[in-house]
UniProtKB/TrEMBL annotation:
All copies of domain N-acetyltransferase, residue ranges: 6-171
CDD domains (alphabetical): NAT_SF (cd04301)
PROSITE patterns, sorted: GNAT (PS51186)
InterPro entries linked: Acyl_CoA_acyltransferase, GNAT_dom
Protein's recorded name: GNAT family N-acetyltransferase
Length: 171
């Protein structure tokens, strides 16, 4: 097997239709799994445009082909101020939102690779921790967070629902 090169880079305006296509696949997968997550018109194309404009949209590429989309937001998630529980830290943090994998790359451990890149990104910026939330019924993501050493911190209310919140101290 040829070794593939994975990279995390900022999403560009010209990526937006590819990204929106990937998100639509993910929305449909969540629906087929019987999940309530992402079924109320969020995220949408406007979300993607907003992420890119704010420089929060990132893509993980495999040999320069966009495989995964993620929004990485620095220190800013108002919903995280009201946690039913407690965060591990109150320093600077990177918020991980809107993780979606192109179905051509599904089932290949892409999200685990993505989290490795996010940890590198966080370290490189000298930021203390990564915070992430997911739906209680997103078993795939819950398993990945557990395998990557994220601690369950409690619940947050976000996008109209209760989410499980996790944190990992990076530095």
């Amino acid at each position: 097997m040829n070794s593939t090169e994975t990279k995390l880079r900022k999403a560009e305006t010209e990526d937006k239709n590819i990204i929106w296509g990937i998100l639509q696949q993910a929305i449909e997968r969540r629906r087929q799994d019987g999940s309530t997550q992402w079924q109320q018109g969020y995220p949408n194309l406007g979300t993607v445009e907003n992420d890119i404009e704010k420089e929060a949209g990132y893509v993980m590429t495999i040999d320069e082909e966009v495989a995964v989309y993620v929004a990485l937001i620095l220190n800013d998630e108002p919903a995280y101020n009201n946690i039913e529980g407690a965060w591990l830290s109150n320093g600077e943090f990177v918020v991980v939102h809107r993780v979606a994998v192109d179905e051509r790359f599904a089932g290949q451990g892409m999200v685990k690779k993505l989290f490795d890149h996010i940890e590198e990104f966080t370290k490189s910026k000298g930021i203390q921790s990564i915070k992430v939330d997911t739906n209680y019924d997103n078993t795939a993501m819950l398993k990945i967070l557990e395998s990557k050493g994220y601690a369950y911190c409690g619940e947050v209310f976000l996008a109209g629902g209760i989410r499980k919140a996790f944190e990992k101290i990076i530095i």
